[in-house]
């Protein structure tokens, strides 16, 4: 067992909830035998947990290794704040970023491969790293260690009351899109303002979650991009769109879809009288604290076009922090590696999971972890990890001002085309996107799409 793991095992048993004051980054001077390392993240749902774990690190590993870790939770656009910090020489040592490729090109961040002491975590998680998301030009800059999954949440009592139950009388969520449509109809009683499902039509992520992610459960293809071929394929999305439009025609969804952002839609589901909603694992926290559920709810895998054809449904992969290139020499790669190993340790990830904050992308770490009854749905979301995956970045395409799919979906929702008409619409869009691949390549001859074409990419379960 490594020194870091031995120390971690000891401190987990004595975790203390002590808030850590956040200060400005950039002052990375070595004071006596203590080196300060600054970490910037957005002010997220796990702020208190990270604060507590940073305090524990400083009191144990940090004290032994001469490291003081300073965690700064930032409000606003973190990447913009980091850009400003670089211009003033105040950039943090470690930070989260959505601009990995650009920062690697500018030399602002250093690859984990070039930091001695990260070999163990690279060996464990490096094969999950995706080009432009976690790596660039074959080198890893942000290791993926946690994940998020998606599913269909449902109101158990409404299913029981409607007689949609299994042989034990328990609520039986739909497995296929056809069952989704039928269940939504059975669950709806407009006279009681009770509806089978709610759609967040005003939310800019509506297409992505309710159409795109649902489609991926059957095809393994996310946002139309097939990594095996390097081409776009929207054919199967027609069946998902058709099912959602049939629900609309049946009057089985909450009226006024176009006026619902995701938060109001989640609040309505939590209040009751809504049978189903597409949701992410992060919604467990939403239904626990932000909009506490007044119902007993469950979660099932995303519905399938055909129950015999199962794709790798969409899942997110979140990476460890990018490392400021200037910090390696100033702080020391051994100290940087110590901090990275701490945040990637099994013990840290398991405790994070137990508190309902993140799911390790290595599901084996938590599959046998016991959680309280009230966290049953969190455990279920985690169980989707083995058949969920984050897709590669798609090859670039030039659409020349054409509507992108999330906007096109709004037109489709309003116009309600038939399935045959949907197939024509999506085929035309697919042809434009694929033609745009060649257009982009002609306009940018230096662009290399090969890292995003993975012939052995797994699409089915």
UniProtKB/TrEMBL annotation:
Q: Which family does it belong to?
A: Belongs to the bacterial solute-binding protein 1 family.
Q: Which ranges does the record mark as transmembrane?
A: none
Q: From what superkingdom does this record's organism come?
A: Bacteria
How is this protein named in the record? Answer: Extracellular solute-binding protein
> Keywords assigned by UniProt?
Signal, Transport
Does Transport count among this protein's keywords? Answer: yes
The source organism is Candidatus Ornithomonoglobus intestinigallinarum
> InterPro entries, alphabetically?
Bact_solute-bd_prot1, SBP, SBP_1_CS
For biological process, the GO terms are: transmembrane transport
Q: Which residues form the signal peptide?
A: 1-24
């Amino acid at each position: 067992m490594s020194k870091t793991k031995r120390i971690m095992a000891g401190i987990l048993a004595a975790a203390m909830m002590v808030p850590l004051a956040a200060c400005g980054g950039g002052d990375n001077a070595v004071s006596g035998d203590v080196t300060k390392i600054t970490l910037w993240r957005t002010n997220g749902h796990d702020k208190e947990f990270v604060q507590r774990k940073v305090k524990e690190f400083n009191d144990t590993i940090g004290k032994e290794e001469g490291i003081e870790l300073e965690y700064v939770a930032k409000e606003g656009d973190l990447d913009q704040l980091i850009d400003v910090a670089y211009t003033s020489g105040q950039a943090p040592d470690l930070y989260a970023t959505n601009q990995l490729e650009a920062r690697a090109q500018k030399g602002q961040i250093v690859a984990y491969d070039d930091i001695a002491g990260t070999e163990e975590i690279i060996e464990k998680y490096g094969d999950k790293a995706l080009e432009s998301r976690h790596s660039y030009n074959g080198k890893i800059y942000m290791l993926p260690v946690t994940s998020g999954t998606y599913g269909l949440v449902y109101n158990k009592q409404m299913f029981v009351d409607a007689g949609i139950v299994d042989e034990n009388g328990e609520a039986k969520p739909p497995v296929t899109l056809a069952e989704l449509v039928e269940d939504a109809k059975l669950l709806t009683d407009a006279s009681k303002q009770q509806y089978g499902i709610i759609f967040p039509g005003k939310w800019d992520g509506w297409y992505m979650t309710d159409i795109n992610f649902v489609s991926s459960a059957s095809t393994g293809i996310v946002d139309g991009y097939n990594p095996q071929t390097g081409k776009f394929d929207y054919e199967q999305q027609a069946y998902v769109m058709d099912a959602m439009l049939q629900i609309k025609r049946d009057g089985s969804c909450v009226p006024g879809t176009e006026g619902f952002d995701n938060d109001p839609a989640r609040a309505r589901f939590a209040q009751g009288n809504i049978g189903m909603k597409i949701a992410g694992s992060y919604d467990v926290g939403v239904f626990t604290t932000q909009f506490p559920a007044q119902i007993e709810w469950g979660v099932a895998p995303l519905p399938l076009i055909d129950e015999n054809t199962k794709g790798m449904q969409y899942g997110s992969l979140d990476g460890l922090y990018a490392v400021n290139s200037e910090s390696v020499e100033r702080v020391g790669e051994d100290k940087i590696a110590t901090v990275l190993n701490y945040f990637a340790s099994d013990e840290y990830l398991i405790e994070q999971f137990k508190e309902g904050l993140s799911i390790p992308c290595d599901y084996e770490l938590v599959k046998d972890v016991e959680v309280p009854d009230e966290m049953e749905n969190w455990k279920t979301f985690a169980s989707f990890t083995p058949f969920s995956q984050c897709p590669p970045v798609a090859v670039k395409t030039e659409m020349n001002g054409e509507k992108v799919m999330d906007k096109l979906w709004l037109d489709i929702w309003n116009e309600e085309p038939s399935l045959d008409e949907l197939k024509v619409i999506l085929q035309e869009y697919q042809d434009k996107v694929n033609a745009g691949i060649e257009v982009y390549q002609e306009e940018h001859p230096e662009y290399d799409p090969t890292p995003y074409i993975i012939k052995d990419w797994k699409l089915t379960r």
